[in-house]
Amino acid sequence: MQQFIIGKNQAGQRFDKFLAKYLPGAPKSLVYKMLRKKNITLNKKKSDGSEILSEGDSVESFFSDETFEKFTRGADLDKGSFDKASELSSGDKVKTESKKRNSASLHKPTVIYEDEDILIANKPAGLLSQKAEKGDYSVNDWLIEYLLESGKMSQGELKTFKPSTCNRLDRNTSGLIVCGISLPGLQKMSEIIREGNIEKYYVTVCHGKIEKAFSARGILVKDSLKNKSFIKNISDEDLKANIYTEFNPLSFNDEATLLEVNLHTGKPHQIRAQLSSLGHPIYGDKKYGANDKGFKHQILCAYRLVFPDEEFLGERFKALANKEIRIDFPGEIKRFGFFK
After folding, report:
1. Which domains does the chain have, with CATH numbers?
2. What is the pLDDT of residue 237?
């Protein structure tokens, strides 16, 4: 017999959804058959898989050790199966060690805020938010390493819940990134970001002088083959707009403007493409028309987040109500002499 006690990161989901993660190598039809025959039980009772799990629930399965090992191994790590290091094949160990060597050469994110449900980190430019290809190292990989090394999560917990980023930043955009480190945290943060209930502010330096605050709406189209977005700027009255951005100049000279950007929508490359379309490309952003030299990447940083009222967050997350998280401007901005 095998037993699993439901923790906070497994609670709140359907039992059959949990079993798909707990037994990734078992066919769904077999899982439901085992439920009918009481070879898998919930709190020692027969289950149909539709029950919503609560913390402390007991899951028992009655497989041979060999069968259980087969059903709990073999799934891709990115899909929620986290085998113990001792169970990895020699080829997998080489890949894991290679990933660690690659990650060691990167600047790691800095933890800015953390509670039992969420973590907010400062992502350095050059680091992916999420994998683009299988061998990539991303904030998600760093997040799991951090939680394991700090003892805040175990390999066993990772088997049925994978902490993850809730918002994305371009590889060469730095700044605040929100991560869910519990299932409720991941669900709630993803929800308020998706529905636009968290205020997101960026700071950037663009070409040209902008003296007054303004807003811009437009239609953004993504060219996936070129990994580039194109903007059609339109009037405030045009209902076809799918992007909306506010720009507030903090300082300027004849050649450059330090802008605070309030991102109301979150389309790919929205700020970069929109400023370029307005004739003010971001310094260092060669993809969108900046011909300046001496910059390794675009000067763009997600530097401030403001959480919504308690009514949008609920009782569990009320401590975050109206909370503001911010970081310092990136060091490259000092080169422009805006603040002397």
Report:
1. 2-73 (3.10.290.10), 90-194 (3.30.2350.10), 199-336 (3.30.2350.10)
2. 63
